[in-house]
Amino acid sequence: MTTEQTQSIQVEDDRSGLGIETLRRAIADNLFYLQGKWPEIATLNDFYMALANTVRDRLMPRWLNTIRNYRRSEVRVVAYLSAEFLLGPHLGIKLINLGIEELVRQAVADSGLALEDLLAQEEEPGLGNGGLGRLAACYMESLATLEIPAIGYGIRYEFGIFDQELRDGWQVEVTDKWLQYGNPWEIPRPESAVMVRFGGRTEAYTDDEGAYRVRWIPARVVKGVPYDTPIVGYYVNTTNTLRLWRAEAAESFNFQAFNQGDYYGAVDQKIYSENLTKVLYPNDEPLQGKQLRLEQQYFFVSCALQDMIRLHRGAGGDLRQFHQKFAVQLNDTHPAVAVAELMRLLVDEHRLPWDAAWEVSQSTFGFTNHTLLPEALEKWPLPLFGSLLPRHLEIIYEINQRFLDQARVHFLGDSQKLAQLSLIDESGERYVRMAHLACVGSHAINGVAELHSELLKQTVLKDFYQLWPQKFQNKTNGVTPRRWLLLCNPRLSQLITEHIGTDWVCQLEQLRQLEAYAEDREFQRQWRQIKRAVKQDLADHIQQTLNIAINPDSLFDIQVKRIHEYKRQHLNVLHIITLYNRIRRNPDIDIVPRTFIFGGKAAPGYIMAKLMIKVITSVAEVVNNDPQVCDRIKVVFLPDYNVTNSQPVYPAADLSEQISTAGKEASGTGNMKFSLNGALTIGTLDGANVEIRQAVGAENFFLFGLTIEEVQQLQESGYNPWDYYNRTPDLKEAINLINSGFFSHGNRELFKPLVDSLVYDDPYLLLADYSAYIDCQDTVGQRFRETDTWTRMSILNSARMGYFSSDRAIREYCQDIWHVTPISVQLKPYVQADA
Ligand code: AZC
Known about the structure:
48% of the residues lie in helices and 14% in strands. The protein is of the alpha/beta class and 835 residues long.
């Protein structure tokens, strides 16, 4: 190469240069050397990859210095164990958190490209189902921003949550191929692989010192390989690691089988091992008997704990002090087998006495519960558990025996209580109760909103609460303002910053300063103008992708979340049909034009949820094509709702639908994202709605529906939906219209399961809440017409959402559960090999 050529593509040696020209050359350089392309033949995705690698280079010094820092010092590290991390696309948030968005935009423009087009190329890592996985992602981001030493441990699913397509209005699941073009945001670390054992049997023996011990002789071994992803904090050097594990065959070939001519048998073993981390299980599916799911859980938990022990010992730590190095949080019960695995590692492998090991374990773990739904409480059939994890079952028996001895004293031998508390459910077929294991093995147990935490104490974990009231806490969820305001709503962010400065980004409570502008005409006008512009963008997108014309001045009434009966998307549909009937009855009726927007996936095996999607799309088809109503009501179902697709949705909402049956939604986090972006909420007293309403003021929240107490009373007194159906004419008319085949081309069978479930059973009390909901919606419509009032309410919603930052939530976890403190990371020019 001539000197001239070298100069034209080389970048500064440390690859950290941030000059626009340097960035432009770095992108060209990566395109050439990593993608093997030159601009004329490069695809947009090639450019995206070149840019992603350019950005990755620039975060490496922070990342490596962060790792070095944690290894060296006697710092306590948070280990967040979660089967799901729903990160969303990396590039946009990394540009923002590194503070280089504008530079990069310019450099990309100088290369003749638009940053937005490149951002749109990214396939998001859909390694989660919904709220629980997304919460884990917000928490990782806040941990980094708050400079808390932390590592996330999870599973590198080859196929994340399925992509949703709509065919003929039905959900069709399509495999998520997020890795097909490679993933620039991860670094595999095969040198840090660990072995995970499964099956087989146990055997007692006496060790050299004459002590009784147990060894586990597994039937098979799988290798866990870590893949590390950097999580960049906002305007800090701290860049934490998300370490996701992939399963591989322990030997890439079983040579014995190979030599015997059993080539396919040898390959089978490899395939079997790699299957372990192939696919994310959708929630809302019965998991009992899904051995692979238990294998996944044990696999990543064992990898994580072995990794932590290695790190701890590598830094010269004593295992009796393991809990001083790591605070491990169990994100729901999916990683709960960690309690038994840590005991096994400490007692069997590292020969700690049981009591010392138990002390360490209990001090190490905290447990967060995310749901009260009985069907979601994990329990594993004993035979399945015992055949996969024979040693862990013995350990669980031992934990259980000691625990029940303790409980027996407390409950004076009340045998019913003891049966309820036991780690083993023996009421019929025998099961291991994972929530019980997590409670017994943890020093702190928390729910995710005040109401939810209270209900935990009164219902599913009542007996544990009686035993250990001091273990119970509440940690109301939060969302990161970086992704959920700064990134997704740049216009509003700028307006806010112009008025109150930039501090709100890391101190969300600062938004309260906006209260001063709530009545300010000029500010109101700007606020409205931005909402209008964002709605126009979404309308354009809907026009282009779905060919539906919507009116940006209509009330955008949005419900986006997983499709589930308890979330009651079909209650929303009953409102739409009610409005439709009103217009048909009285074509000149004066109603506020509304655009109803839905989005969300249904679990593939959840028939009723899939039927709910079909009823939404069927009503949409009729309403949108009825010339009499379509200028006043439009219904849109956004396909493939995921983090990427959600980002333009929250800012465009006027009204946020949070209408679950009281007592069913643990917290909700979408409710927070909407309100933060200035939407008003119509909601029940459920989950975090209660606290949101308190925060924004009851007068700025549309409340309706039965309270938990009323729900309980109604159910106890024998709820009969049929009565409600008969005595509420509008309701009856709406349901009858569905039943008549009106929305299904005359097919009266199609929606029968849904209608029958409502009028004969209605476990989620839609019919009981219907009238209150409709009345409340009427109030919403009236209020929307009072433009200034609505705008003031909208401003006050944003202004008062400070509490719902994930920074606040993480600070509380740090103080009350993990006992960790921030450490600031200093940048050194390069990381030395001996560091
Ligand atoms: C969800 C809860 O349903 C939701 O209310 C809460 O906000 C969220 O967790 C975060 O705490 N639970 C799940 O998503 N559960 C699973 C198994 O995915």
